[in-house]
Amino acid sequence: MMDPGRTMDPFIELDGVEKVFDVRRKTGFLKRERHRVRAVDSISFSVARGEMVGYIGPNGAGKSTTIKMLTGILTPSGGRLRVAGIDPSRERTRLAHRIGVVFGQRTTLWWDLPLIDSYRLVHRMYRIPAARYRENLDRMVELLDLGELLDVPVRQLSLGQRMRGDIAAALLHDPEVLYLDEPTIGLDVISKTRVREFLRGLNAERATTVLLTTHDLQDIEQLCSRVMVIDHGRLVYDGALAGLHEAGESERILVVDLERELPPIAAPSPARVVRVEGPRQWLAFPASASAAGLVARIAAEYPLVDLSVREPDIEAVIAKMYAERRAGRPVA
Ligand SMILES: Nc1ncnc2c1ncn2[C@@H]1O[C@H](COP(=O)(O)OP(=O)(O)OP(=O)(O)O)[C@@H](O)[C@H]1O
After folding, report:
1. What residue stretches are annotated with the ABC transporter domain (predicted)?
2. Taking the chain, what is the end-to-end CA distance rounded to the nearest angstrom?
């Protein structure tokens, strides 16, 4: 594992970066109040070439604002920021040739045009050499299974198809870094797996640096060796995912269906029943522990019909982590 913050070849570098928005709020008839929102508050980190990093945090934490500064759409209010040695807001066009961006919630493809027409436009916009374009397009079509979709107008694509189309569009010009904002949001399990497999392959083959914003813990688990957590504009954790679990002392939930309604299961500590609804009971247990022993014990003592284990979602992990921080325990 690469040591976060002490990377060999920093490709993305932020040093005390800030973004403050001046917001005017209507407080009465003809009355407006100005106030300042510190969306990003003195953030420093560096990402090495070829790293895949998860960038997570609750709603409004400052993730999108960071990504917008990294692409040059927004200018930082303070601090120093470099991507591939370039100051993004000063040389946005030059940087655009080296980065790719995918937003899960909106498409960069032309809605009414067949998919292939969007790619032709990207080809011209980025002045990609013809042979390179052809080669990349063929590769994307194969890896992302886009063959049947090229002549379909984007508005007719399913969400998963559209996402694959968007990822291909972001990569046709061979960017060295890819920013992904919720790339699996709303996708079914098969589409999610496909997108993740593709990203893993891309990173392994081309050493593309990836910065990934997501609410899906599995995205992080399956793709990122490192995760950064931002809250209220501040970086509150930077390290391995396993460390985050420990920091948040996160829990998994065992959902148990019994034959009939019974009093709460007497589970061995620290596992405990957190909810009962008819014959169904929910037990929380530490994420780091195996479920096997707990399941065996319940199966031996209770009339078990069915069970499933739920992974904690990222919000739950973060919420736990904040509780720890408020209690004064360091997390990173
Ligand atoms: N253009 C803007 N003008 C004023 N305030 C803004 C602007 N953009 C973002 N903010 C504020 O900055 C803060 C951070 O927003 P940001 O969109 O970066 O959060 P986020 O972590 O991406 O959240 P989400 O997960 O909901 O997308 C929020 O309080 C938001 O209201």
Report:
1. 12-257
2. 16
Q: Tell how far the Cα of 64 is from the centroid of ligand 1, in angstroms.
A: 7
ipTM comes to 0.96
Q: Which two tokens stand for residue 326?
A: 């408020």
* Rounded Cα gap, residues 56 and 315, in angstroms: 9
Counting the structural domains of the chain, the total is: 2
Domain of residue 171: give its range.
10-246
The rounded distance, in Å, linking the Cα atoms of 265 and 247 is 28
CA dist 319 and 70 (Å) reads 27
Residue whose CB lies within 8 A of the most ligand 1 atoms, among 65, 231, 236, 313, for a mutation test? 65
Residue of 17, 64, 180, 229 with the most ligand 1 atoms within 8 Å of its CB, for mutation: 64
Nearest CA to ligand 1 atom 4: 21
pLDDT in tens, 229-259: 998 899 988 998 777 766 656 678 899 999 9
**Statement to judge: residues 209 and 301 lie in one domain:** no
Query: Which of the two residues, 275 and 260, has the higher pLDDT score?
Result: 260
Do residues 59 and 232 lie in contact, with contact meaning Cβ atoms separated by under 8 Å?
no
